[in-house]
Description:
The complex is a heterodimer of chains A (about 375) and B (about 200).
Chain A: E1 20-24, E2 28-29, E3 35-36, E4 39-46, E5 56-60, E6 87-88, E7 93-94, E8 99-103, E9 118-119, E10 124-125, H1 135-148, E11 154-160, H2 162-173, E12 178-184, H3 192-206, H4 224-238, H5 241-247, H6 265-280, H7 283-295, H8 306-309, E13 316-322, H9 330-342, E14 347-352, H10 366-378
Parallel strand pairs in A: 5-8, 5-11, 6-7, 11-12, 12-13, 13-14
Antiparallel strand pairs in A: 1-4, 2-3, 4-8, 9-10
Helix pairs in contact in A: 1-2, 3-4, 3-7, 4-6
Chain B: H1 5-17, E1 24-28, H2 34-43, E2 46-51, H3 54-62, E3 66-69, E4 84-90, H4 99-109, E5 110-118, H5 123-130, H6 155-164, E6 167-176, E7 179-180, H7 185-188, E8 191-198
Parallel strand pairs in B: 1-2, 1-4, 2-3, 4-5
Antiparallel strand pairs in B: 5-8, 6-7, 6-8
Amino acid sequence: MSEINPSSLAEQSVGIVAAQTAHFEQPLCLKSGAILPQFDLVYETYGQLNADKSNAVLICHALSGTHHVAGKYNADDKYPGWWDNLVGPNKPLDTNKFFVIGVNNLGGCSGSTGPASINPQTHQPWGSQFPVLTVEDWVNSQSLLADYLGIQQLAAVVGGSLGGMQALQWTIAYPERVRHALVIASAPNLTAQNMAFNEVARQAIITDPEFHGGDYYAHGVVPRRGLRIARMLGHITYLSDDAMGAKFGRKLKDTIRYSFDAEFEMESYLRYQGDKFAGEFDANTYLRMTRALDYYDPALPFDGNLSQALDKVCAQFLLVSFTSDWRFSPARSHEIVKALLDNELTVSYAEVTAAHGHDAFLMPDPHYHAILRNYLHNIKVGEPS
Amino acid sequence: MSVNIAEFRHDFAIIAGWLPFGGKVLDLGCGDGALLEYLKSSLEIRGYGVEKDDANWLACMSKGINVIQMDLEAGLSDFEDQSFDTVILSQTLQAVHNTEGIVREMLRIGREVIVTFPNFGYWRHRAQSLQGRMPVSKNLPYQWYDTPNVHLCTIYDFDQFCINCNINVKERLVLTANQPVTFMPNLMGSLAMYRLESMPKK
């Protein structure tokens, strides 16, 4: 095992990709007690599954992520998948070596069964009747996808933020099915402050007159204003004060006009991000994603003792946090590290010096990517098929 | 910073001799992981390192060594009481600010503690001091203005420290140029190696 020279081989794109859909006829029992009678999971894969199926890596997405992790659907797409800087030939998560799976979580709005899907019992969109999902439910559904793809054991599960919670949950729920967990910018549960941001975001959506209790599809409207404010708030918390200062400072677009228009560049950025998001994302999905974040707390059945919660875990871990991330601070990653150490598990933990706040986990910082590259390089897989 | 294993093999070998086979070992300020790698291959230890420097951390992780990135002076609360067979502080003591606090933390976490440090009482250091210069040597390679070392001490000083702090010295070995020194170790010894434990309760 050795360090590898990142410049030795040119990084490439996975190229043109296409999503696939796995349909599951069996009912899925959810943590809430609700049952999804049937469901679809939309997913993408990159690279080739090897002969002994030992090279599969699952990427779990965060709040607004999708199955579209890397590559483009069309050559003229403006942007590639959301973690394209990580995934591809000779990239840190090298698709020459690994078979990488991106999946849209249940309750999502990018193709997997979610609140906007048709409820087979009513032939109407689920809307408010779509169940509240948990991280545990997502991981259970992802394990069914692994079955569907014929993969008994994943070489690794990788996730940042809410995705990191799913990676952690995989090692708890399916200890024998995960060899490595890469838990990035995550936490073993949310703090009160962190949940408070989610509550404000949800209130913005729920109190939007066009929310209609979650059944806005029937009214032909969407609660854009609420979703827009929720996203603006989220963006503030994903960035550090320093990053916002460096990016916008107090810069004006033009001049002070003594109005409430977007006069500062920061304001027009937030408005742009909010508008863009409100045009593509589903408000009911946003409510459920934030709720899943709030509810995740694997230590809860053990009186808050995370070490006991990880008692059955046998995966090897890489944890990464970022110094300027105040929404999922390094101290929260340390809690996971401590619980892993208490269980004498194999774990490395890096605290990356970065200015971008929570968003840093999506940035191609050279040291951060060297960490992921070298860790993934050391994961042993069988021969290519 | 790369460590040439061949150069340090003797102190590594002595440390290995103080560890149980397959033991659980924590190396504080583990550098590029050379010691843990050596102990893993020779004794099949279950090792963890603590390192704050990015490049060193990456070197450890790339060797397949468990390494936690943190400043050991910021506290070691990630580690439970008596959860390791041995906690090692190899040639780092002199760069630590809260010396007593760190040694106490090591004794809390480990059943045994190994501390090694450059002996400031070594005659070459004394000779340079007498010449009116701050000592520079193989074990103290820094100039006064760029040294990370803040708490240099002699073997005599550390013996007194252990007495004052009620720490039991199980073994002490002194090396110069990789050779053991028994005659006037505080004068003739360049590297001091201590095997410590909490004083047994009466």
